[in-house]
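Student: I would love a firmer grasp of how sequence relates to backbone shape in proteins. I am handing you a single protein, as its sequence and its fold in token form. I am told such tokens are a discrete way to write the fold. I hope you can help me see how the letters and the tokens relate. Take your time, and here it is.
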Amino acid sequence: MGAGAHRGGVQGAPVLLHAATSLPEVPVPGVPGLVVRSALMDSAGLAAVLGIPRSTVERMAAAGQVPHLRVGKHIRFTPGHLGEIITDAERRPRAGVHSQSRGSARTRL
């Protein structure tokens, strides 16, 4: 494209090309085989990877329940943060799961 040429949008405005396939894959530390295509994710991106609502990610970050960083007023997550979130969730017992010693619906023989 020559000088003054542009691809859609307003002349002079930056053009965002959909080049997701050209972005390098970034491995997620602590989670073998999982890669993301961005060094930084916003709350919507992290929510999409985890399969949870964006509002849940934002609430957990505000409460300090998940690792994150702030760029001004914006919350961002690195692949390392994602790895920590996943490994912490695997180590933590699920809420609502009771052990046999605390009572159970199972009949004791």
In short: The beta strands are 26-27, 35-36, 69-71, 74-76.
